[in-house]
Amino acid sequence: MGREHLSSRFGVILLSAGCAVGLGNVWRFPYIAGKNGGGLFVLLYLVFLAILGLPVLIMEFAAGRAAGRPILSLHSSLTPGKPAWRLHGFAGLAGNVVLMMFYTVVAGWMLIYFVRTASGFFSPLDPSGVAAAFAGMLASPAEQIAAMVLVCAVSAAVCAMGLRRGVERVVKRLMVCLLLLIAVLAANSIWLDARDGDAAGLRFYLVPSLERMREAGFATVVAEAMNHSFFTLSLGIGAMAIFGSYIGRSRTLLGEAMNVAALDTLVSIAAGIVVIPACFAYGANPGQGPGLVFSTLPNVFNDMPYGRFWGALFFAFMSCAAMTSVIAVFETILACAMDAFSWSRPKAGAAVGAALAVLSLPCILGFSAWSGFRPFGEGSCVLDLEDFVVSNLLLPAGSLCFILYATRRFGWGWSNFLAEANSGAGPKMPGALRWYCAVVLPLIVIAVFVLGLADRFGGGG
Ligand code: PHE
């Protein structure tokens, strides 16, 4: 079966950017930046994106384009004589599935918050009422289950419609709306911060401070910055490889990867500008964790002229960003299912949608019926465990696999990788980077990976 290709270069870039841009940018990045003291974390994150994220993205695109297959059968098609690499395929597929087990739930929260904001639910509430509303939502599973099932059903339906008709068309439109929206909201936020005179929010967010980094813990900040750079570019589990397989050979991969990374980074930085100064302007704590967006922003919008409108737009934007990533990951899982069982698109879509809706239940129940399960002690829940498995284990380990696979002879090998990455027009990946990619990159990933785990389990975190 010939692989479908996308109809335009713009489509490919927006589609992979649609996968990259998601809850990672607008929900995870602002609260992690807040927790890790802003400034220096943001700087480190940018450095990791450039020195690690970009090359790994090129490697993942290249392996995907050369194989023309999803992660499960990618290695056996490129290097049939090296069966051990198939383990990476299984780990990647597992990564996609575990990611979706909490991602669809948080995407559902965005939908719920969109409806609540648009309908004026938050308007009469004071800050404690807003916080109570979030806790109340967590405690009652029915609404969350409905929203999560809707997310799964719509994403599966879009994938079932087919790549070009469904995925490309929908994601392209969503991405353009999203970019316009975030620009408007960021401008509004800068205006808010400046109006209050001292721009404390922007300074926290953009000015590096060793003091704040020490407070958050050096090892934690470094490890979180690296892990989040993989998370935000969707690296390590084959989610990007699938888009590589849809890119034609007329362009080099360095150029495409730079575009995707730049778009993704732009959205993250803008999302930070939207969220963090707004917290300062209204006296909320930017370091409070995953609830940041949900328990503070409704207050912000309540106090703002036309806040209900801006709030509804914001959560609409968050919902779109989340949906494009869910659709992209569903596409990967679907492609694996179609490859493995020779299923038709609609059949695979229905099966994957239904399976993921069931698998997402533990995350929701973790806030109510199963709240006694505390994987990391007081205050932690199923979501924390799932996020940890994906963000701190599978993504960095999977990215390390892609690096070794693309640069070492026991994998696919540097010359094959370079030839694939550089075929087509556009900027080329310099061959002189071999030593850096084959030796320095793996060492950085291993060092930071170990540092992060030691910090978490060694009593430091
Ligand atoms: N990059 C996506 C985001 O920022 C999340 C993601 C991670 C998607 C890994 C696919 C694979 O939200």
Q: What does this protein structure show overall?
A:
- The structure is a single chain.
- The chain is built from 20 helices and no strands.
- The chain has a single domain (9-457), classed as Hydantoin permease, CATH 1.10.4160.
- By secondary structure, it is mostly helical.
- The structure holds phenylalanine.
- Phenylalanine is lined by residues 19-20, 22-25, 99, 231-232, 234, 237, 239, 325, 329.
Features:
binds phenylalanine, single chain, 461 residues, mainly alpha, Hydantoin permease
Architecture blueprint of SSEs:
Blueprint: H1 9-20, H2 23-35, H3 39-67, H4 71-78, H5 86-118, H6 127-139, H7 141-160, H8 163-195, H9 200-206, H10 210-216, H11 218-232, H12 241-244, H13 253-281, H14 292-302, H15 307-341, H16 345-359, H17 361-365, H18 382-407, H19 414-421, H20 434-457
Helix pairs in contact: 1-8, 1-13, 1-15, 2-11, 2-13, 3-4, 3-9, 3-11, 3-13, 3-18, 3-19, 4-5, 5-7, 5-15, 5-18, 6-14, 7-8, 7-15, 7-16, 8-13, 8-15, 9-13, 11-18, 11-20, 13-14, 14-15, 15-16, 18-20
The structure holds phenylalanine.
Phenylalanine is lined by residues 19-20, 22-25, 99, 231-232, 234, 237, 239, 325, 329.
Spans of at least 5 consecutive residues whose pLDDT stays below 50 are none
The percent range for strand residues is: under 5%
The dominant shape is globular
* Distinct ligand kinds: phenylalanine
Number of discrete domains: 1
Largest sheet: none
> Order of SSEs, N→C?
HHHHHHHHHHHHHHHHHHHH
Average pLDDT, all residues: 89
E-strand count: 0
Relative helix content: over 70%
How many individual helices?
A: 20
Given this structure, which CATH class is correct? Mainly Alpha
CATH superfamily: Hydantoin permease
What separation lies between the terminal Cα atoms? Answer: 50 Å
From the alpha-carbon coordinates, what is the Rg to the nearest angstrom? Answer: 21 Å
CATH architecture identity: Orthogonal Bundle
**CATH fold category name:** Hydantoin permease
Structural class: mainly alpha
